[in-house]
Amino acid sequence: MTETQLRPASGEVTSPDAAVLSAVVKRFANAKGEEFTAVDGLDLRIRRGEVVAFLGPNGAGKTTTIDMLLGLTRPDSGQVELFGEAAQQAVRAGRVAAVLQSGGLLPDLTVEATVRMLGSLHPGADPETVMSRAGVTRLRDRRVSECSGGEQQRLRFAIALLSDPEFLVLDEPTAGMDVAARREFWATVREDARRGMTVLFATHYMEEADQFADRVVMVDQGRVVADGSASSIRARISGRTVSALISPQDAASVAGSPSVRSVAVRGERHYFDSTDSDALLRLLVTRTSATEIEVAPRSLEEAFMAITHAGRTGQEGPR
């Protein structure tokens, strides 16, 4: 990203925010004509250069929010701004690009022909560079229809980079990719973020949000229910998981401890959901024959389930 992209013509520094959503509401009608609210007063501010994971259960309002950020639909009330202007204007100016889960590719074209054809719409675009960054150079002569799902996702990534966007929206970007391809993809995204690109990605792979996001935003029922670093969100639910190789008799005894909330068995290991891992460790070491004991903090997935479940049941969320 160039200096001129970050500053207006006057030379005055622009807002540090890439995207601002203020009290956004979006309603739809179902097949019976009944109105429902998909996004319900959502407030969100994304700073330039952030990599933000956007998480939520099905029906939480993620896709509708992304559609409004991309200018594909307008809010019924509230404001959606990108770089201080309407989303549609930012998209038309090439400041915003997206990698969606499906569609947008012509099956009979080769990878290279696809990139070069769409690159012709963006003066100054460098098809060779974006193919290299997206990891599809070796696929240049392959027809799109012959590419795997993961390879097509990388092609969509190359297309998104053609406009040299300042804000990149990714919807399940690594679906269909193998482990190595995922790592290469995220290495490229992080490099782009270091150069100033802002990234918002929706994913069902919680480990991606945990490993690659600077910030995690969780939405449910059309509202933000958690916002912060992955570690801060994990810390909102108490306790740790202690696992060990242990006999069924000893496990049954340990399960009755006040520090154990529940027990699960996976293969040869027992997993104890513990409110006091230190007390449980002392019990396992001094009073059982447990071996290969491991203690793990709460996962982001566990936090996600606890936070969204609390919102849907009307309970107070975890602290």
Task: Explain what you see.
With 319 residues, the protein is an alpha/beta fold. The protein folds into 2 domains: 3-233, Rossmann fold (3-Layer(aba) Sandwich); 238-297, 2-Layer Sandwich (Alpha-Beta Plaits). 34% of the residues lie in helices and 29% in strands. The chain has helices at residues 3-6, 62-69, 87-92, 111-119, 127-134, 149-161, 179-194, 206-212, 230-234, 248-255, 277-287, 300-313, and strands at 17-29, 35-47, 51-55, 77-82, 85-86, 96-99, 167-171, 198-202, 215-220, 223-228, 240-245, 260-266, 269-274, 291-297. It has a 6-stranded mixed beta sheet with strand order 6-7-8-3-9-10, sandwiched between helices. A 4-stranded antiparallel beta sheet has the order 2-1-4-5. The chain has a 4-stranded antiparallel beta sheet with strand order 12-13-11-14, covered by helices on one side. 35% of the residues are buried. This is ABC transporter ATP-binding protein. It is a peripheral membrane protein. One of its GO terms (molecular function) is ATP hydrolysis activity.
Order of helices and strands: HEEEHEEHEHHHEHEHEEHEHEEHEH
Indicate the mean pLDDT: 89
Superfamily (CATH H level) name of the largest domain? P-loop containing nucleotide triphosphate hydrolases
Sheet with the most strands, sense and barrel status:
6 strands, mixed
Integer count of domains: 2
- Strand-residue proportion: 25-35%
Q: What is the overall shape? A: globular
Number of strands: 14
> How widely separated are the two ends?
40 Å
As a percent range, the share of helical residues equals 25-40%
Poorly predicted spans: 1-13
CATH topology of the largest domain: Rossmann fold
Radius of gyration, rounded? 23 Å
What is the spatial order of strands in the main beta sheet? 6-7-8-3-9-10
> Per CATH, which architecture of the largest domain?
3-Layer(aba) Sandwich
The CATH class of the largest domain is Alpha Beta
SSE class: alpha/beta
Number of helices: 12
